[in-house]
């Protein structure tokens, strides 16, 4: 989604300026072209060379530089930007933009650009809370500037409070969101993610290797594209995506309750969760003690959530995933038919770079007509967008 997108990143003078280096790395890793512009104060905290090395482009620092003006020019840079992000954004730059001041390279680009502008403030808590700063932010918000608020915590100046630069993945997510078409507005997607845990006793459970990455990627992509999103997830180390209704669950039964309970208002269900097919028959109230004898654990079937959703399908689109280690297409087709699905995303979890825990996947999309689309190895973010493109196609069919 960020591949080839042109992002101008303004860096201003605050201690969080060093974190902008990580932001450049993440954007470049996602395929974006990043052009860094630094204020004079920013250069007191970090050198242009760092950003030049990470971005692969020269860094702009001067408004009237002969070489920079002939090669790029501040107007050319303002025109080239598909998005202008300022991270960190100090109280000073926010005040200058709000007052319409354009007296250096960065403020001039802000004034000249037609691209959306995202500001990620970072400053001392008292500066953040200062009514002048808050009024400036309000003014800019009302003029269509985007903000990602700072986080609360320990600040470099020794204070505790709001003022820390938002986490880099959250800033990247906001950039993706601003650049995404809102082609799913009007859809309410319920996405499931992660494993389920079926308790054996108070300290042990049956589960699988799902990390939640695939389902979380679908939830984030859908939210970026303007859908209302409910994410029901089994235990996962991933942070709840912002702007999404997040329902954490543990067992398959809890997931069933959350999914079926939310279903009436849902237009599309995407089940990427790896739900345990079985659970221990009865949970021991105490930790099971070791003995010399063999131990067998009787299991009983869990509810099949997607199958139940297929029984009450109505106009809803149902999309399942199939994690297979053999006969990928045959097994996936069987699940598509038995669960009454519109689409199934079949992944052979033995392939390198596919399936559980990794950031990438290799999938085949199979629809009700039996048509198969083979997708190459791609990031789970990109696969999420391919699946959501299919939602649009299925809607228009
Ligand atoms: O979370 P990650 O680490 O990113 O890994 C991603 C993934 C491998 C988990 C994901 O890509 C994936 O394949 N998810 C589905 C895994 C799975 O449980 O497949 P299945 O073939 O057993 O189930 C078929 C479908 O029925 C799935 O949509 C599943 O959510 C659903 N199901 C299964 C069992 C059950 N009792 N109830 C269900 O609703």
Structural overview:
With 397 residues, this protein is α/β, with parallel strands linked by helices. It has 2 domains: 6-179, Rossmann fold (3-Layer(aba) Sandwich), CATH 3.40.50; 188-277 and 298-396, 3-Layer(aba) Sandwich (Rossmann fold), CATH 3.40.50.10300. Helix content is 34%, strand content 24%. It has 14 helices and 21 strands. It has helices at 19-29, 48-55, 66-71, 74-80, 91-99, 105-112, 125-129, 131-142, 168-179, 213-224, 252-262, 305-311, 328-338, 380-396, and strands spanning 6-11, 33-38, 83-89, 117-121, 146-147, 151-154, 160-164, 188-193, 198-201, 204-206, 228-233, 245-248, 268-271, 278-280, 299-301, 317-324, 343-348, 360-361, 363-367, 372-374, 378-379. The strands form 6 sheets. Strands 12-11-8-13-16-17-19-20 form an 8-stranded mixed sheet, with helices on both faces. The chain has a 5-stranded parallel sheet with strand order 2-1-3-4-5, with helices on both faces. It has a two-stranded antiparallel ribbon with strand order 6-7. β6 (151-154) and β7 (160-164) form a beta hairpin. α1 packs parallel to α2 (48-55), α5 packs across α8 (131-142) and α10 (213-224) crosses α14. The longest helix has 17 residues, at 380-396. The two termini are 25 Å apart. The structure holds ligand PMT. Ligand PMT is lined by residues 192, 194, 210-214, 252, 271-275, 277, 302, 304-306, 320-323, 335, 347, 349, 355-357.
